[in-house]
Amino acid sequence: QSLVEILIPDVLRPIPSALTQAIRNFAKSLESWLTNAMMNIPEEMVRIKVTSANAFAQTLRRYTSLNHLAQAARAVLQNTAQINQMLSDLNRVDFANVQEQASWVCRCEDRVVQRLEQDFKLTLQQQNSLEQWAVWLDGVVSQVLKPYQHSPAFPKAAKLFLLKWSFYSSMVIRDLTLRSAASFGSFHLIRLLYDEYMYYLIEHRVAQAKGETPIAVMGEFASLGRGLNQLDPDKEEEEDEEEESEEEGQELSLPSDGAGLGEESLEPPAKLARTDQGVLFTTGSTEN
């Protein structure tokens, strides 16, 4: 955990591309380096160390990806024309219909969703910086999870909120897609970032509630994922190839100046919609 905080002290602060690539290369090779260095070591010791190293490597990968999204989104949030177009498109979304459909699945309180919708529009209208958006997202998490503080149910409630947030945002993105919103590309990017940052916030809140480090929390499932990979020796190599392919596509679709996020990036909007993961304001928040 200390290494993560040294390498990436602030996930939103710009990181030089050379350093980002160095960190990702390090994360990619770490497990094999560690395994090769522990020949003739008891199997259980190897398993424990490799599991921890795997959680560490995955965290570095996620944080560098989050940082990359943050810098791409920063350009959108600083573009007045794009913000105005986003507000215009957002005001055409049928939020009553979104809430009606999503509440059937998420069972979220209307007043909570409406307040988040209004807050999101207001924050967008004020053309806040990325750091101000981060404060808003953190406040949303605090507000929604406040009833579960110091409760054994906190981790479960936090993860459930994450699912609801993603579901609501996907419903809003769907509405924007069907309306062929001119700012769909910008919303898609912002949604990817906010989903990833919300995951980051929840990860840290759960770790704090359990009195553990985020690495330890994520490490609980690292051994399971490793076990599945061992069942298929080609799986890890395939995932590495897919990751490299995704990185190349990401460089093309997330320009640092935001210039490629206009209407050209909307073709075809349905294709983009299948690949996104959530952001936005309409968030399924708390349980009744």
UniProtKB/TrEMBL annotation:
Region (Disordered) residue spans: 227-288
Domain spans labelled RFX1-4/6/8-like BCD: 1-208
Membrane-spanning parts: none
Signal sequence interval, chain numbering: none
InterPro entries reported for this sequence: RFX-like (IPR039779), RFX1-4/6/8-like_BCD (IPR057321)
GO MF, one annotated term: DNA-binding transcription factor activity, RNA polymerase II-specific
Pfam families for the chain: BCD_RFX
Biased composition (Acidic residues): 234-250
Protein name as catalogued: RFX1-4/6/8-like BCD domain-containing protein
